[in-house]
Amino acid sequence: MTVEKRIGAWFDHFHANPEVSWKEVETTAKLAEILTDLNVTHQPFDDVTGLVAEIGEGDRIIAVRADIDALWQEVDGEYKANHSCGHDANIAMVLGALSYLQEQQVGSRIRFIFQPAEEKGNGANAMIERGAIDGVSHLFGVHLRPQEELPFGKVSPAIHHGAAVFLEGKITGADAHGARPHQGKNALDPLFAIAQFVKTIHFSPYDAYSAKLTKIQAGGDSLNIIPGTAEFAIDARSQSNTVLSELKERITTGIEAISELHGVSIAMKWSDYTPAAEVSEEATRIAQESIVETVGEENYAPAVITSGSDDFHFYTISHPELKAAMIGIGADLGPGLHHPMMTFNRDALDIGARVLAATLKKASYLVS
């Protein structure tokens, strides 16, 4: 079977067997089975899912990361695990790159990090804590891109993700009868105030940022009860880690003021922070040269700037000396990432694998 056909078979398997963050047990087992069949040394972990594999020899280490988890979302009226972010494709492309490199000579060790829980925003940190990038000088990632960013056949040497963080909040007032609102504290009033407040936060128009409510829960089946409690969530993003930090501070301060104004308690919890990309010029150049050599100058695309986020960038936050870039693969992906019915041109998988293999090989020889 050709490498291209194996890539397709691997994708079919992982697409049909999605597992959510931290529960990628069968995914990890299948990866171990594939790597064993490929005669590749690999190491799972005792306490988390995911594993690390290596080929090549020497003291220098180049690495690539594939995220392996799926989302939990509603598909055709049923909540289930679903690979609508393309991590099944990422797995297949990285395994494909490994297979192509097995047929070639490489100039250093190449490490393959199959990372859990990217969707939770903390899988990268688990890998960092377990030494997955110890001794690594260059790190690459790969991800399919939405059709509005890259058409099929085009490949970008770097994705400049934004920073993101979520806020979960609970408003606690007091229930009241619909006829006697003065006897309670309506949780909906501060909730609507929060919705309006986040729209009043402004930074320089040269900075890309956003804050919006993504969850509201209040009230029950009895329509004559004014709800005293409500829950909400806010998604906050920026292309800059500094701006996101200030955005987070402003949101916190504003909600505290709303709490005092309405005489209610508002508990807040920030979670799932992912940093903005810190992209290496050297890693980008290596990827750029590899793209041109593999698919031609006409299929090279400039770096992608996106408001989406990825915990890949925790690797460079924790190890500033690490030279990293994530390669973007055009696949005519639509309607969009995280859409339950997301589809793409599967011919992009082999393109991504070949570009990634060329990038890793070039980096293995160029690192001094």
TrEMBL record:
Alphabetized InterPro entries for the sequence: Amidohydrolase, Bact_exopeptidase_dim_dom, Peptidase_M20, Peptidase_M20_dimer
Name of the featured protein: Putative hydrolase YxeP
Molecular function as annotated in GO: hydrolase activity; metal ion binding
Gene3D superfamilies: 3.30.70.360, Zn peptidases (3.40.630.10)
PANTHER family according to UniProt: AMIDOHYDROLASE AMHX, PEPTIDASE M20 FAMILY MEMBER
Taxonomy, superkingdom: Bacteria
Record SUPFAM superfamilies: Bacterial exopeptidase dimerisation domain (SSF55031), Zn-dependent exopeptidases (SSF53187)
Underlying gene: yxeP
